[in-house]
Amino acid sequence: MIWVDTVIQGILLGGLYALFASGLSLVFGIMRLVNLAHGDLIVMGAYLILVLVTILGLSPFLAALIAMPVMFCLGWVLQKFLLNRTLGDDILPPLLVTFGLSIALQNALLETFSADSQRLPTSALTTASVQAGPVSLGVMPLLTFGSAILVIVALNQLFYRTELGRAFRATSDDPTTASLMGIKPANIFATATGIAFVIVTIAALYLGLRANFDPNIGPARLIYAFQAVIIGGLGSLWGTLLGGVIIGVAQTLGAAINPEWQILAGHFAFLLVLLVRPRGLFPRAND
Amino acid sequence: MAYSVTTQTPASRIAAIAGVILISLLIALPFFAGRGTIQDMFFILTMLVLAQFWNLLAGYGGLVSIGQQAFVGTGAYALFGVVILWGVDPVPAIFCAGIAALVIAVPTAFFAFRLNGAYFAIGTWVIAEVVRLLVAQWKMLGGGTGTSLPRDATRDMWFIESIESTLGLRSAAARDVLAYWLALVLALATIGGIYWLLRTRRGLALAAVRDNTEAAKSVGVDAGRMKWIVFLTSAFGTGLAGGLIYMQKARISPDAAFSVTDWTAYVIFIVVIGGIGTIEGPIIGVLVFFALQTLLADFGSWYLMTLGVLAVVVMLVAPRGLWGLLSEQTGLHLFPIRRRLTGGKLASSEE
Amino acid sequence: MAPLQTPLLKTNGLVAYYGDFQALFGVDIELDVDETVAIIGANGAGKTTLMRSIAGILRNAATSVSFDGRPIGAQPADEIMTQGVAMVPEGRRLFPSLSVEENLLIGTYGRKSRGYWTLDTVYDLFPILRERRNNPGTALSGGQQQMVAIGRALMSNPRVLLCDEISLGLAPVVIKDIYKAVPAIKAAGASLIVVEQDIAQAMAFADRVYCMMEGRVTLSGTPDTLSRNDIHDAYFGASQ
Fold first, then answer.
1. I need a labelling partner for C225 at 20 to 30 A (CA). Which of B76, B297, C88, C203 fits?
2. CA distance A179 to A194
């Protein structure tokens, strides 16, 4: 019975990883950009929410709601004025610029908030659990998983049901021809990164509510997000969710055997998938 | 007058002479410099080696790795392993460090080469994490907390006795001098080796692959094989440097030996700021890096933040780095690898 | 009956470069309202460069292209499109991630102008597209893809439609089908610039013809004033 419980906790943990990964997947899908600062941006989002909670005395959920437009603007500006300048055939500039950004951001957070670990204030809701048969499920993990599904559904709707989504796909296919449709690729990319930052904020909310965070944990979040994306197959959001779940289950199973093996088990699951399905479980046809 | 193909430039000939003088000075350094200077120079030289190998990977091979700490850490742990478990002398153990890194590099490449471009970068990082976590499980070498080299091993190292008597130093200082000389040899061999590699047919092929994989393939260059050669070479060299660095430190822990900041972030910043894709770039970069570190060391995280921002700015404003700016302005090439036609009538039309 | 009217679209000593390579050397062409102009010339004559310059994919000096009397030469493609200059690019360039219908809909992204052309009227013009509306654009035959590309450009109800090599690589019977759409396009109020390699085809539908060679206009006039020999010389260079 303990195994069923472990697996279910792992699946729910996968929801968190899918949230980490969705923004990464979105940005890569549209402009083939891998943002190495993604994990640090999630941590920054958590600090932003923390600051809003502390200063305005809001609940973390409300604070996240306020943080979203702020983060959207930040993402928009970052893409428009910095990252767009790195796009092109050469993969070095975007990688090195976002890597520099990652280190700069980590240390800016360290300087501002110190290395002490923080946590968003929890309420009765965040510590509650529901009994589902023999298994007890935390409300917070359930909420995280639900949010991940909601984010993925919303992104899919955006992509396949709206004019903006068409513009995203068209620009991703062929920016020059897209500009003949009246699309400004630079702005489309900026908007995409803005949306990714909104998802980053949601991920940051649950990161901060579920566990302690400090300025140094960003890179590990980037790695989990990356693993979820690769396992799922580039460009498939549902695949990303499954990728997150696989990492989550591997980690909780590993931890159940030996607490020191938690992270290692996740990495092994990733390497195993890479070994048997190098293009991920749901690869997109034209990549 | 006959034509001849040469890579020499007047500047490179002057540089060669200046180089011989500089190298002589560097060799003689322990005879007149204090222990602090020797330690600083050791740091500069080992970082230079790491930077040259990362530059070979990313700047020439187009393989952006952020997992070089895998090879530093593996090399370092291999050195500690053979010294502690098998009683090998630390000096020859450095060679084992390189071999161990090479061994780890094979499965790393096998996995990471399945990932394209940007994802290759994170893939190498994941593997470095895996190696770090595995090493932390190795209880005989101290597990997560790490271990030290046994005292008699460091005291009785090769050459130590003669350095002690020649320079009149105590054992710890003599070890620094030995480490410095070894680092100097490694740095010179690295620069010389990479320079040689880039001037051979292989090096030309490498440039071709970097510039245009498809076109290179069509003239018979095996891009996949070149990637393997570059990756394994730089893993071996990085492993040697890792072994040497920790032979000097004589104390190791997984978090330090597999630190992405120390062994990859710094190295990337050195190369980017100095000038990626050139041999001169990392040399300039490591000097700028050391100057910044000396100036800003007291400011802790501000220092790293400055480096990060500086790398971003350089990448956007001057993607060929400081050396790129300099050689664009002056046409200077200290390690010319471009083949130029000289003699005959064409001599003056080049550049 | 408006002899001094300013042309709708005009290039003025247009020069264009690809890096160091100069592709256009002072090209002057004009397009009047309701006119159809054909541009003919051999491969490499600069026809596509001219179209890309007008559409804004290549940026030029502001005054080198004017539309409705306003200089647009320095504007980017998206701004030019918004003012009513749409292009059917060489090679069709459908978006592979979009269905046929989505490819048509994206044509209105920058310009939502009420006019004759809607999804329905485009489907009426090319009925086969209605049947295949949910297919990916790239699953269609070459001729059908060309219809999508034309429909996509029409969706914004452009005042000027630039068509670059719309018959390239298509079977003669398919080309005929596509050119059958030209009268309807003109009737809906668009003026056309069509790049065409087939001289006979160009002569058949154009009000005026420009012939280009090596980045310059070598001949221009109405089809009835141009002799085969003039065109031959302008096309391949004078044969002394």
1. C88
2. 20
What is the reported pLDDT for B91? 87
Record the pTM.
Answer: 0.89
Domain B4-349 listed as CATH 1.10.3470: yes
Q: Where are the alpha helices (DSSP H) in chain C?
A: 47-55, 77-82, 100-106, 119-125, 127-131, 142-154, 172-179, 182-187, 199-205, 228-236
Encoded amino acid at B217, one letter:
K
From A29, which residue of chain C is nearest by alpha-carbon distance?
Answer: C97
Interface of B to A at Cβ within 8 Å reads: 58, 62, 64, 66, 111, 114-115, 117-119, 121-123, 125-127, 129-130, 133-134, 136-137, 260-261, 265, 268-269, 272, 276, 300-305, 307-312, 315-316, 319
Is the pLDDT reported for residue A237 higher than 70? yes
pLDDT digits (tens, 9 = 90+) for B90-102: 888 999 999 999 9
B301–A230 C-beta distance less than 8 A: no
What does the alpha-carbon distance between residue C86 and residue C106 come to, in Å, rounded to a whole number?
Answer: 12
In this structure, which amino acid lies at residue C107? G
- Best residue in B111, B302, B315 for a mutation probing chain A (most A CBs within 10 Å): B315
Q: pLDDT tens, B287-310? A: 999 998 888 877 778 888 988 999
Nearest to B242 by CA among B46, B45, B41, B42: B46
The answer to whether residue C84 sits within a structural domain is yes
Whole-number CA gyration radius for chain C: 17
CA distances to A99, B74, B267 from B300, rounded to whole Å, are 19, 27, 18
Give yes or no for residue B341 having a pLDDT over 80.
no
**Residue type, position B160, single letter:** I
- Tell whether domain A2-114+142-276 is in CATH 1.25.40: no
Which residues from chain B sit within 8 angstroms of residue A102, using beta carbons? 308
CA quadruple A67, A68, A71, A77: dihedral positive or negative? negative
Q: What angle do CA B266, B112, B199 make, to 5 degrees?
A: 65
Q: What is the CATH number of the domain that holds C64?
A: 3.40.50.300
**Nearest partner of A236 among A17, A8, A21, judged by Cα:** A21
Over range B270-282, report the average pLDDT. 91
**Domains held by chain C: number:** 1
Contact A36 B64 (CB under 8 A): no
In angstroms, the CA B98 to CA A164 distance is 53
Residues 6+ apart with CB under 8 A from B22: none
Tell me the average pLDDT across B70-79.
95
Q: Which two tokens stand for residue B167?
A: 């320079």
Q: Tokens 């068409």 map to which residue? A: A166
pLDDT at B320: 87
Chain B residues whose beta carbon lies within 8 Å of the beta carbon of residue A36: 66, 121-122
Cα distances from B321 to residues A72, B315, B334, in angstroms, run: 32, 7, 16
CA dihedral B183, B188, B194, B199 (to 10 degrees): -170
Distances (CA, A) of C206 to A192, C66, C91, C199: 44, 21, 22, 10
Does position B351 have pLDDT exceeding 50, yes or no? no
DSSP letters for A214-235: -GGGHHHHHHHHHHHHHHH-TT
What residues make up the domain containing C136? 9-234
pLDDT at A257: 92
Rounded distance between C-alpha atoms, residue B118 and residue A90, angstroms:
11
Residue C2 lies in a domain: no
How far apart are the C-alpha atoms of A119 and A138, rounded to whole Å?
17
Query: Residue C59: is its pLDDT beyond 60?
Result: yes
B278: helix, strand or coil? coil
Q: Complex ipTM, two decimals?
A: 0.92
- Which residues, in sequence order, are CB contacts of C228 under 8 Å at separation 6+? none
Q: What pairing do the DSSP bridges indicate for beta strands B340-342 and C9-11? A: unpaired
Yes or no: say if A128 and A139 are a contact pair by the CB < 8 Å rule: yes
